[in-house]
Design brief:
globular, Maestro_heat-like_prot, MROH2B-like_N_HEAT, MROH1 protein
């Protein structure tokens, strides 16, 4: 996973595809490995963190029926928290674009997801003057 820091887009894409491929064979194992890697590398630059998060999303989406309930709950929580943090960090420079995207998650008559509200709140705090 250290290769995700390679600046070459082709290498980054190959890492993403490799993680997804491994996730097809051993979804729980690769999700736990990605989760552990992100925890151990909390200073990993956001573009590189996104590669791992996207792979985790793909593995979860493609294998949701195969995942143990506790694994799915733990991994999805961590993944959503990390994704929220990425949006907040990007929002420090591109607040209008991020806010535009977050606001699309507010639908009339539907209670927004916890992480949508948390992201919205954290964007407000990080950009408050």
């Amino acid at each position: 996973m250290d290769a995700t820091t390679d600046k070459e887009p082709l290498v980054q894409e190959q890492i993403y595809e490799a993680l997804c491929g491994l996730g097809e064979a051993e979804p729980e194992e690769i999700l736990h490995c990605c989760d552990e890697y992100l925890r151990q590398h909390d200073k990993l630059a956001y573009p590189h963190r996104v590669i791992i998060l996207k792979a985790m999303e793909t593995v979860v989406r493609n294998n949701i029926d195969l995942l143990d309930k506790s694994t799915a709950k733990d991994v999805i929580w961590e993944w959503q928290q990390a994704a929220s943090s990425v949006l907040v960090a990007v929002g420090q420079r591109f607040i209008n674009k991020v806010m535009e995207e977050v606001l699309t998650k507010f639908q009339p008559g539907i209670l927004p997801h916890y992480f949508v509200l948390q992201t919205f709140a954290n964007l407000s705090v990080s950009n408050g003057e």
